[in-house]
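Comment on the following before class.
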Amino acid sequence: MKSLITLFIALFVSASFSFAGDSVKIKGTVASNNKKCDGAEINIYDGNNLVEVSLADSKGRFNIELHAGARYTVRFSKGELIAKNIVFDLLVNSLGNSPEEFECDVYLYPPSYMSGMSSSVLDFPMAILEYNERKERLEFNAEFTNTMQELYQNMLIFAETTDRNIWQEE
């Protein structure tokens, strides 16, 4: 259980921020069941419009670039695994003189892990990152991100400590 929570928290703790002019490069790894998710799909949305689709390489690594002036939802998915969304709020004219990259790792869970539970909360973004013009960097929206992190951790604890067979219809 600790390893699952640690992997989820890693998204928040190990993020490093950087920008290049008026865009931010995002790179990281998608994994599940302690294996890298080769071919994981990374969909980038500006509002409801799909603007780009990218695939993780054979080692689960991905590299994408987002431009200033939009609020993006980045959706990470792989087959039947439960997708994860992260919002990047770049609704500014310029990203200033910040460094060059944002790095994060994303862990996806199989639906069987959440069987018998309502996982509708997982349709919401797991984190919102907002560009702070004064500090010239991305920052987590602490209230939203902490709430989602707590909900997700509670689901993981419940999944590991409950006999989920009681939730399935006979």
Remarks:
- The radius of gyration is 17 Å.
- The chain has one domain: 2-161.
- Residues 142-161 form the longest helix (20 residues).
